[in-house]
Amino acid sequence: MAPLLALEVQGAGGSAIEEQEQGVSFTGTRSSMYRLCLWSRLASRVLLPLGSGAARSSDELHATIHALPWEDLLADGTSIGVAFSGSNDAIRNTRFGAQRCKDAILDRFRDAGRAPPRVQPQAPDLSISVRLRRDQVDVALDMAGESLHRRGYRRGTGAAPLKENLAAAMLMRAGWPALAGEGAALIDPLCGSATLLIEGAFMAMDRAPALERESFGFQGWANHEPAQWEMIRSEARARAERGADGAVPEIRGYDGDPRVVRRAQENIAAAGLSRFVRVSVKELREVRKPTHRVLPRGLLITNPPYGQRLGDGEALPHLFRRLGELMHAEFDGWEAALLAPERDLARSTGLRSHRQYTLYNGRLPVLLCLFTLIDNQLQDANGGAGRAAWSEAPGIGAGVQRSAEASPPSGQQKAVQASSTEEAAMKVPTGQEAGADMFANRLRKNLRRLARWSKRSDVRCYRLYDADLPEYAVAIDVYGDWLHVAEYRAPAQVPAELAAARLDTVRAVLPQVLGLPPERIVFKRRERQRGTQQYQRRGNRREMLAVEEGAARVLVNLHDYLDTGLFLDHRPLRLRIAGEASGKRFLNLFCYTGVATVHAALGGARYSLSVDLSNTYLGWMRKNLALNGISEQRHRLLRADVVSWLGESEDVFDLILLDPPSFSNSSGSASDFDVQRDHAELIAAAMSRLSSEGALYFSNNRRRFRLDAGLGERFEVEDITRSTLDADFSRSPPIHRCWKLRHRPAARP
């Protein structure tokens, strides 16, 4: 910020300007000091040096401070405070150092026969800055008083507020003053408390940032000239009035949290900008360039939440990718600026940044990345944790997005773990040619049957084959242009050699029939896991793919676990929830990776709560929310045991999804869970959280499951299993069972 601050000093009339480690030094008049206190958008303090001296001991410190002519520096009636920093062998405590300085000043007045000033540690009229460096102190008067970054308009902030002077530096580095002069627009898609928008409006309207401040440190200075100060402030008021009467650019902001937007509106009103700056509630996925007027040029600028201060760090690459897609799709021809905690996150946007600046948000180093959105193509990011990439390899389905990440699951699990095997194609073993032809023909038949349906229904991920031929007992799922093949454990009467030969046949046939390279076919073994085995990761590729389902984008992991993060059989139920969620309160119990919540949010749910005991699943869900530009403020996640939480909660919801595991013995639960044994009590507890006109969907994949007959006596119960199975799961018996439950009319208020 120092080079920018030097320009401000020059504009205020300063000379002999030198950039230093923590600021800028200059020579100037009283007028230039007044103008800097009023007009600087970057400075925190304006210090008037008084001198330096020795401080090898506390007595020497006292003598150095006592020697200064305080009776000629302080106006009558001025209260003082000392801001002391630094330490040495003799002065180890800043409070002690400050006290010795105050004593010296008061002693100076008494020795001169003058009444000493009043000491006021909190909010004094004039603060005295004393900086101890080794055995030397530098003494100065703080002419600004309260830090200049506090403009006075801030009534409320979000969880990670951006300092006003840092916001101003971002805008200056992004070229906003010049753009505003050309009539360009300013938009912040993650506006928080609207600091960037307010600072941008001040610049566009030629308004001094400290215009409304009532007090400054220099008002307690003996050489203060009130008439000169009033003339400079009157001039600034006249400039602000002319700016407000002129053509103010389009300035808009959006945030997904209504409470944050209300705070932003309060700040905007306190700054007197309600006519010029507008903010509204919009998720990132909903943000578009305004269309009420032509806006060919503008600046999109934002300070996204980042891991050290807010949100989940592993979800951030997907948030930045979403920002990159928004910039590319909606703001062609504009400039853009993002604040990022590290360079890799900026690269996750997929766009080329032409310039970067290192700034500090408090003590945190951050990177300001500038983008020109003219011929800036959305790029693949190759390799590296958290970087997004689009693959367009030929084969089944559409392209998929890749990112390297994942972590071992814990808590309540649905996943049966996987044993990864080699992924290379092999020749068909001798003696298996006839079986290979039979298997290949079945694949071709299934492809013909499902191709029309998948195209008509716009389904990118589906089950192509599920042990249709008993000899080839595998489940084959299509994920865009990847295949996920899970081998069922062979019956005991089938020799291991024969089972292995049949799997080799599957390996050989799939690339030939489907036209996919072998490296895009992932093989795993599905077998029953017991005890803690069900929670152990068997692969460590840590690679995720982003695939599409309806309006949602979902991250799946094909390599490390048997279950990929997306249960394909529940696709119709999730899409049903999307269609019913508008304006409703949605509860997702045993939420897994939160795909149903993503659909509910995209369908317009008022808000949602998703409950699961697994940190991994909740972290995975955060990534899914970020990938879809959905705010966690409106769509909350809760790590809790579902059964225990239902017994304690008093919240009410209009739409509930209850999709428990068949069995769980998680250490985080008070007892183990068996869906057949415990479902009636679980459903009753969930129904107690359902509004009178609401609907609860209960589903499970337990074979031979029987719904408790008593539930039909208490609630309206409808078996909707068939309507929740698409063409790829139309076989019998159904892979899952699903019911819709509502309160009986007599029980409704």
Summarize the entry for a quick read.
The protein is an alpha/beta fold and 749 residues long. It is built from 20 helices and 32 strands.
Question: How is the secondary structure organized here?
Answer:
Blueprint: H1 2-11, E1 15-20, E2 23-27, H2 30-39, E3 47-54, H3 58-66, H4 70-73, E4 79-85, H5 94-111, E5 118-119, E6 126-133, E7 136-142, H6 164-173, H7 176-181, E8 185-188, H8 195-204, H9 226-245, E9 251-255, H10 258-270, E10 277-281, E11 298-302, H11 316-330, E12 335-340, H12 343-347, E13 355-361, E14 364-372, E15 389-391, E16 400-404, E17 418-420, H13 433-457, E18 461-466, E19 474-479, E20 482-488, H14 496-514, E21 521-526, E22 543-549, E23 552-556, H15 571-580, E24 585-589, H16 595-602, E25 607-612, H17 615-627, E26 635-639, H18 642-648, E27 653-658, E28 663-664, E29 673-674, H19 675-687, E30 690-700, H20 710-714, E31 715-719, E32 737-743
Parallel strand pairs: 4-5, 4-6, 8-9, 8-11, 9-10, 11-12, 20-21, 24-25, 24-27, 25-26, 27-30
Antiparallel strand pairs: 1-2, 3-7, 6-7, 12-14, 13-14, 15-16, 16-22, 17-21, 18-19, 19-20, 22-23, 28-29, 30-32, 31-32
